[in-house]
Design brief:
It is found in: Cell membrane; Membrane. It contains eight helices and eight strands, in the order ααβαββββββαβαααα. By secondary structure, it is α/β, with parallel strands linked by helices. Helix 2 packs antiparallel against helix 5.
Length: 314
């Protein structure tokens, strides 16, 4: 029974050994781990920086396209868009000339358009060309009404034969959420959704109104030209690169600071008395300065020793 207790005690002593702390891990292993974390962080920053550079390149192409096409002279529609053809992305924003008449009985409103600081509407009116095709024209935006969400007034397009100048725009995507709109409205300028209510229209593009001749007495507000702001993408890309560099700089600071503390611990270890050095483990370790101060041998008080001797003699 005694042997069993002895074995149990030895097992308990073995199991009670404290786990290896991070400070007891070899310095080279810790530093390798630090550098590995910095490399992973730099790789993530590199991907994010590349993504921002890509977005900046796309934005630059858009600005160049607008600058090259926006103020070009108007040409007949068939010059840039053949019947049933899809709009060439290089021709976006190019002005074209339409001749024919509006079909006001098929006009629609696009809801939730951001204009004038409100959820405004845009007026879509099919335009029948002299060659028989029907082309969709966005005449501009209308503010919501004073007492209701719908505009107080929807200006009628000019009747009869009209010459219209528009800028070519590609259709917008249909809502992925499947949201719909009331009759006479559409959620986006998607030509498929528009054709469901107006009948067949040219599927390649729609036109953003520039001018009408003859000009009507009242008309919607013109849609603002596209912004020439390049966006924050380039600055964000540079910031991610700087973050990667800062990660390596921080790891370098941690390693240098740890080496400095280790050297200070080694210097304190050399100041220990000889018995303390003999008891110290062979593996070099940093000594706590407070513990070192307490472990140093203090000078004896001779007066106290004399008093103890007198007391013993009595």
């Amino acid at each position: 029974m005694a042997k069993t207790d002895d074995v149990s005690d030895r097992g308990a002593r073995v199991d009670a050994r404290p786990p290896v702390s991070a400070r007891e891990t070899p310095a080279a292993a810790r530093w390798a781990m630090y550098i590995g974390v910095a490399i992973l962080f730099a790789i993530a920053c590199g991907f994010l920086s590349h993504w921002q550079f890509s977005r900046n390149a796309e934005r630059t192409e858009q600005l160049e396209l607008v600058a090259n096409n926006y103020d070009q002279p108007a040409v007949p529609l068939e010059t840039l868009l053949a019947p049933g053809a899809t709009l060439d992305p290089a021709d976006e924003w190019r002005p074209v000339r339409l001749e024919g008449r509006y079909l006001p009985e098929d006009q629609l409103l696009v809801r939730n358009r951001a204009h004038g600081g409100s959820a405004a509407y845009e007026q879509l009116v099919p335009f029948q060309l002299n060659d028989g095709r029907t082309f969709l024209v966005d005449r501009g935006w209308l503010a919501p009404g004073d007492r209701q969400s719908l505009p107080d007034e929807i200006p009628a397009p000019p009747p009869g034969d009209v010459t219209v100048e528009v800028r070519l725009r590609p259709e917008e995507a249909a809502p992925t959420s499947g949201r719909s709109a009331e009759a006479g409205q559409v959620p986006t300028i998607n030509l498929g959704l528009v054709a469901e209510q107006t009948g067949p229209i040219e599927p390649g593009a729609y036109g953003l109104l520039v001018s009408e001749s003859p000009a009507p007495a009242t008309a919607p507000q013109p849609v603002d030209p596209p912004s020439d702001d390049p966006g924050p993408y380039l600055s964000y890309a540079i910031q991610w690169i700087l973050f990667a560099v800062m990660g390596f700089a921080f790891i370098g600071y941690v390693i240098v600071n740890e080496r400095r503390l280790r050297r200070e611990g080694d210097d304190d270890d050399e100041e220990l008395p000889a018995p303390a050095r003999e008891k110290a483990p062979t593996e070099r370790r940093r000594v706590d300065p407070v513990a070192l101060h307490r472990s140093r041998k203090r000078p004896r008080d001779r007066d106290a020793d004399d008093e103890d001797a007198l007391l013993d003699a009595r």
